[in-house]
Every structure is written in structure tokens, then in C-alpha cells.
Protein: endopeptidase La
Organism: Mycolicibacterium neworleansense
Amino acid sequence: MGGVNRRILTLLVALVPIVAFGVLLSVVTVPFVSLGPGPTFNTLGEVEGKQVVDIEGPDAHVHPTSGHLNMTTVSQRDGLTLGQAMALWMSGREQLVPRDLVYPPDKSKNEIDEANNSDFKKSEDSAEYAALSYLKYPMAVTVQSVTDPGPSAGKLHDGDAIDGVNGTPVANLDEFQAILKKTKPGEQLVIDFRRKNAPPGVATITLGDNPDREYGFLGVGVLDAPWAPFDIDFNLANIGGPSAGLMFSLAVVDKLTTGDLNDGKFIAGTGTITGEGKVGSIGGITHKMLAAKEAGATVFLVPADNCTEARSALQDGMDLVRVETLTQAVDALHTISAGGEPPRC
């Protein structure tokens, strides 16, 4: 009987570290974030019943499109237990990175989310400007934001083109600011503007004051940008920053020109974009390539600065096309359609 008890005791003692390790796996969290292939979205398609890239207005002249111009994302998992982290790492599909690289300790999660949302909104504006610039729409002094509350709230809107101030035409930002800097708080300005999908208008605005300047405060952010008389909306919630810019621009170009940029092929890609159409590098290129391959892509547009990393994880059956500008990306797709050789990574 004593031998049986000893064996049970020995078994229990042996089980203690196993149980303890199991508890560690399931309870203890690790200071790592997992990165892996995320969902892809066809910028020519719909999400939740809305066009991902929606162009509305009687002057838009939108052409039918088909096929795929997919933007790609990186999935991100936080708050991992030791067991989850080990399982993800062993899957070979996920990358573990120190949490501080993704969530800097000197910023709250809300601050990081707000910065990402701001980056995403800026990328949408830049994607619109890059596409309209490529399509040769004329430049205008364009309202990018309206301070609310502020002198212009309810009188000027985002997207308005300012053509004149107090009867003086303004062709660019320098001319506009030169007039504004001669004003004083309390003065009235008469602004001639064009509004998308609406007739031209005139707004009389009483200037406010701002402690960082002596001249009058109009309460708008403006920039020189190509202007079109119709609305372009991007109906995707923040997907983690500005890396969808290139694919958004391509979708706008495809919808506002005849023919299909993809020529029936499943095109995917990534890249930031400036309002001038310059394509910039992004993070997580290998994860995005894997997501694109699994979605069915045969061509992947790669920012030039990401080419070395992209080659290290080349996916069978998927061509890597090197792009530095929106114009290069459009030309490369036309070259592929014609059976030629585009620039490759």
C-alpha cells in the first residue's frame, strides 16, 4: 500500500511543474505583438454595400470597371498570452515584435489610434490629389479643413476651391496668403468659391483673432491642389495608417478613364502616396504579399524602397512590379496589359 502511495505522490510531484507551466501558458501575457497577413480589399469593389472608392457628381463621368486592384493590410494581435505567442510563432505565418515598437510607451493607445486615424485621412486626401493631378485637373486654392467653431464654419466646406478674395482673383496659396496677411481681426472678407456638385458661391466672413498672428483668422486650412467638381469618398474605416494610398489612387484613375487598368488580372499592392504622386515605403511587405497571394493575386505592386525585402519572400506565381510614382504604376499596368515587361523588383 505504501508503494502505491509513493507512486501517487511521485506522480503528483511530477505533475506540479506541468500544471504550473500550463498556467503560465494560459495566464501570463508577453510584451510582444504578433504581425501577420491581414485582410485585403478590392478598391474597385464594395464594402458593406458601399463602393470602396465612391465618385459622385454629374460631371464625374465614371466608367465601369471590373476585376481587382486590391489593397493589402497587416493583421496585429496584442495582449498575447505566452501560449498564444508560442503558437503564433510556431505557425510560421506570424512575426513577433516587441510591443514598444508598435505602441511606444510614451504614448497612450488613444494617442496612437488618433495618429493612425489622422494618417489615414491624410492618405485619402493625398490619394485623391495624386489621381486628379495624374488626370490633369487644374490646380486651385483648396480648403482642406474648416475649424469648427470658427469664422468660416458653416460658410466654407472641405473641398471648396477659393477663386477670389474681396474681388481679387487668387490663383495659388501664395496669392491667397498675401491678401490674408494684410487683414485685421474683425474685418470682413468676401470669398468667391466653387463647391463640388453645387453652383459657385460667395461667402462673407468676419475674421476672428488668433494669439499666434496679428492678421485676421479665417479658420481654414488651405493648400494648392488639383480640383475637380465632383466628390471622391473612400469608404473604408482606418486600416492602420497611410499604406493604402497608391491603390486608392489607382482605383480613382481606373474609374475616371476608359478601359481596365488590370486587364482582367488580379492586381494587388501597397504603398503610401503624396499629393504629387510619389510612392513611399511601408511596413510588413512580406505579410501583405502572402495575404495577396492567398487572395488570388498574380501581380503585386511594390514601393521601390521595399523591393529588397519583397524579393526575400517571393511568392510563387506572383510578379513583383517596382513602382516609384503613380505614373509609373499606371504605365506598368498598361505594359502588362500589352504583354510587355514592366519594371520588376
User: Anything to note?
Assistant: The first strand starts at residue 32 and ends at 42.
